[in-house]
Amino acid sequence: MELLLFGLITGFVSGFFGIGGGTILVPMLILSGFIIKEAIAISIMQMVFSSIYGSFLNAKKAKNIFKDGFILGVGGFVGGLQNSFVHSLVSNEFLQYLFIIIIVLSIIKIFISPAQSSQEVKNHSKASLFIIGFIVGIIAMSIGVGGAIMLIPLLVGVAKYPLKTATSLSLFFVIFSSIAGFISLSLAGQMLFYEGFIVGLASLVGVYFGIKIKNTTPITSYKQSILFLNFLILITMIYDTFFKVS
Questions:
Q1: Transmembrane residues, as ranges (predicted)?
Q2: DSSP track, 119-180
Q3: pLDDT tens digit sequence for 159-213
Q4: Pair 16, 226: CB distance under 8 Å
Q5: Within a 10 A sphere around the Cβ of 187, how many other Cβ atoms?
Q6: Which residues of 160-173 are buried (b: 16+ CB within 10 A; e: fewer)?
Q7: CB-CB neighbours of 3 under 10 Å
Q8: C-alpha span between 47 and 197 (Å, rounded)
């Protein structure tokens, strides 16, 4: 029952914010008793479900952005395949510290960037998009998130995408990085298939309502919601990393 609830919440967050859901699912799973590497495995499998279904729903309103999304996604896929290798090199504690640093940087970048860019979206080379995707894919899959928490600030602040367009594009990116992470952890024998399936199935319901509400939310309120989510995740991870008694 707990996993079903986690799936519903994560799916809604994934659809509304355009993220894989790992940024909220991993802390919830850790607080419920899973170690971070188990939480990462469940999170990655859930992301496969939510990102595919969410991108299908988003495609109706964002048909023109998925060319760039495909290049970013291929880079993320290749980067995500390095997941099990990275896990063999670093500790659980290192991954948690890295997670906190990334959230802080994302909050700063989103806060200083306008929600609705007045500039035209730049044309970027395939090589630069691939490299961005590759780097994000490596880091994201190593900490159990789809990459959107890093990719959205880059798309808004550097590539000048409108915020809602960036979130749709980032969720599409998550398809590639999460499938790569799923393959990598499965081959390494580190995937929790049953728990991941339960959470992933429940997330589909949440994704539907998340995207539905996102499309009717004013852009200023939407930006404030994204910042609030990041602050909430940051506080949760700081508590778990530095203050929680084992």
A1: 28-53, 65-82, 94-115, 127-156, 168-185, 192-211, 226-243
A2: SPPPP--HHHHHHHHHHHHHHHHHHTS-SHHHHHHHHHHTS---HHHHHHHHHHHHHHHHHH
A3: 777 888 888 888 888 888 788 889 888 998 889 999 999 999 999 999 999 999 9
A4: no
A5: 12
A6: bbbbbbbbbbbbbb
A7: 20
A8: 10
Reduce the DSSP state of residue 21 to 3 states and report it: coil
- Please report, as a single letter, which amino acid is at residue 121: V
Structure tokens at 112: 């200083």
The dihedral over CA atoms of 181, 184, 188, 191, expressed in degrees to the nearest 10, equals: 30
Structural tokens at position 38:
């188990």
The per-residue pLDDT for 48 is 93
Residue 96: both structure tokens together? 């948690």
Would you state the pLDDT for residue 42? Answer: 93
**What sign has the CA pseudo-torsion 19, 51, 80, 43?**
positive
Residue given tokens 């399936």 in the structure block: 197
Residue 80 CB contacts under 8 Å (≥ 6 apart), including other chains: 137, 138, 140, 141, 176, 177, 178, 179, 180, 181, 184
Q: Which residues of the chain have pLDDT under 50?
A: none
Enter the tokens of residue 25. 């699912």
pLDDT at 219: 87
> 170, 22 in Cβ contact below 8 A?
no
Domain chopping of the chain, boundaries? 2-243
18, 152 contact by CB (below 8 A): yes
Q: What is the pTM of this model?
A: 0.75
Distance, in Å, from the CA atom of 244 to the CA atom of 237, rounded to the nearest integer, reads 10
